[in-house]
């Protein structure tokens, strides 16, 4: 299977305002070998139904529909999944949390192989926040999610955020972005 990167952007900035995290992720994506397949979805612009915990009642879930089906299909089609997620309250923004909660449903859709194909994928995180130390709990949390599904952890790329345009001044982040997705980052 040739490389296919799925970028899930999760900033909740208003349409037309490119955030720091997506800007940094696009820098990293531009350094991928030419022709590498990329799919981008903006979770905050999608209709994501709230997750309902049915594990100990019906125990199963119907196959997802609408935008959730789009996301399931994109998730399974990818070899590499990149969460493009700013730090919100030491954690991930709610659209990404909702998407992740639905992984618990996708593990329980009769006839759907989810866990096994996920274990063949790599998960990475591109993030920005006011300072690096405050991003650590969120980075650890995303890494643990990868471990839970036996995914390869490709690491986190962090940049100093703030108002749009801030991360452009973080020269260390810009340098690290160059090899981040191909695994050659320092
Ligand atoms: C709801 C909310 C919560 C935030 N929480 C934190 C935080 O806990 N720690 C931090 O350093 N920055 C925090 N920030 C700042 C953002 O992480 C920072 O501005 C980031 O660069 C925004 O990413 P974006 O430009 O891609 O939208 C928060 C911002 C928002 C909107």
Automatic annotation (TrEMBL):
It comes from the Bacteria. It holds the Pfam family FMN_red. InterPro entries: Flavoprotein-like_sf (IPR029039), FMN_Rdtase-like_dom (IPR005025), ISF_SsuE-like (IPR051796). SUPFAM superfamilies: Flavoproteins. The keyword Flavoprotein applies. One of its GO terms (molecular function) is oxidoreductase activity. The keyword Flavoprotein applies. Residues 11-151 form the NADPH-dependent FMN reductase-like domain. Gene3D superfamilies: 3.40.50.360. This is NAD(P)H-dependent oxidoreductase. It comes from Paenacidovorax monticola. The lineage of its organism: Bacteria, Pseudomonadati, Pseudomonadota, Betaproteobacteria, Burkholderiales. Keywords: Flavoprotein, FMN.
């Amino acid at each position: 299977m040739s490389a296919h990167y799925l970028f899930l952007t999760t900033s909740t900035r208003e349409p037309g305002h490119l955030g720091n995290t997506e800007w940094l992720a696009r820098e990293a994506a531009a350094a991928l070998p030419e022709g590498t397949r990329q799919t981008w979805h903006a979770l905050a612009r999608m209709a994501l139904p709230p997750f309902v915990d049915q594990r100990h009642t019906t125990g199963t879930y119907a196959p997802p529909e609408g935008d959730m089906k789009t996301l399931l299909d994109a998730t399974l089609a990818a070899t590499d999944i990149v969460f493009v997620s700013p730090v919100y309250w030491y954690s991930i923004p709610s659209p990404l949390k909702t998407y992740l909660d639905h992984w618990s449903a996708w593990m329980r859709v009769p006839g759907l192989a989810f866990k096994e194909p996920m274990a063949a994928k790599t998960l990475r995180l591109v993030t920005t926040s006011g300072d690096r130390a405050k991003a650590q709990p969120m980075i650890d949390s995303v890494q643990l999610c990868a471990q839970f599904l036996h995914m390869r952890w490709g690491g986190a790329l962090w940049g100093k955020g703030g108002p749009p345009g801030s991360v452009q001044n973080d020269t260390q982040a810009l340098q690290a972005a160059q090899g981040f997705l191909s695994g050659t980052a320092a």
